[in-house]
Write a structure and sequence with these properties.
Elements: E1 4-10, E2 27-28, E3 31-32, H1 33-42, E4 49-54, H2 59-66, E5 75-76, H3 81-91, E6 99-104, H4 112-121, E7 127-133, E8 138-141, E9 147-151, E10 157-166, H5 167-175, H6 185-191, E11 196-200, H7 211-227, E12 230-243, E13 246-249, E14 252-255, E15 258-260, H8 268-280, H9 286-289, H10 303-315, E16 319-328, H11 338-349, E17 356-361, H12 367-370, E18 374-384
Parallel strand pairs: 1-4, 1-6, 4-5, 7-11, 16-17
Antiparallel strand pairs: 2-3, 6-10, 7-10, 8-9, 12-15, 12-18, 13-14, 16-18
Amino acid sequence: MGHTAALIVAGGRGLRAGGSIPKQYQNLGGASVLRHALKTFVNHAAIDVVRVVIHPDDYDLYNLAAEGLALDPPIHGGATRQESCWNGLKNFAADPPRNILIHDAARPFIGVPTINRVIAALDQFDGAIAAVPVHDTLKKADDNGVICATIDRANLWRAQTPQGFRYASLYAAHANAALNNLTDDAAIAEAHGLCVTTVLGSEENIKVTTPEDFTRAENRLNKRAAIHDFRTGNGIDVHSFKPGDHAMLCGVRVPHSQGLAGHSDSDVGLHALTDALLGTIGAGDIGAHFPPSDPQWCGVDSAVFLKHSAKLVTDAGGQIRHVDVTLICEAPKIGPHRDAMRARIANILVLDITRVSVKATTTDGLGFLGRGEGVAAQATATVLF
């Protein structure tokens, strides 16, 4: 297996959050809480594999949250968080990674810099946890709420996740730990004598537990949208027809009496969308990244181009929020294939399908498109930075 794996713990029931389904599957800004967390780990360049621990009753909810994401099959959790983590660790035993990060599904706002700091610390320590220093004055009270002491807050930290460990060391610690429902993997590691350090987490990395937390999380998303930079990119592409029996359009093989001419699979929709994404970061056009003179791109699936542009956007700190493609042609008919096209684009870009639009129009018989000589596409991408 690769260098670093991530284990997302999503087997809890989350009763304090209210609602009819567990909190990790409840909607937050158009996607489930779990999906927000998963996308960050799946798209992280240093994480080789992501697995999720779920409750056996939650398969339908999990499948919806994980749709289109590159994930290994989910793992059944246990009666406690400690048991769920142990089940997850055992699932890696046949092909163990060097490092493993364990993250709570209820922390949707985990950031890439925090993950980076945890991973980097594992070069020196057995384990590392994201944490933030305590700034509030701490009081100890008796059973009646009467203050009996003031706690020195120096060197006190609020633990967050992810918590990272060298896999072999954490596996041994869990294997020898008493089943006493510890809610923190670092506590198990510490009891086993492992050296665990803290790295700076983030105040953004909140845990959603109560209805009030959901309100704060929604407000946080709205605030982020208000203060961040939205960029819009546009792309246009045209391909003529050639002899063939199908046309690749927006990742879907559409039966037709002709094919589209071009160096790759000539998917005019994905080409236009690739250029739109590149436009949001000023990264040139598709030809600059995949020259048509290079034989390695001959006949290649245009999804390769779109994934590349999406990764460049993500690496630049962008979050793709919406894409819109308009196909312009007299034939083939797009309507019967529109939903499949939306689903394919959503899968490639790891987006909810509600954030993908595919439309079609004609030129009313005018020009080369009206004469049925080819297909054109125009695409727009909206990216949040």
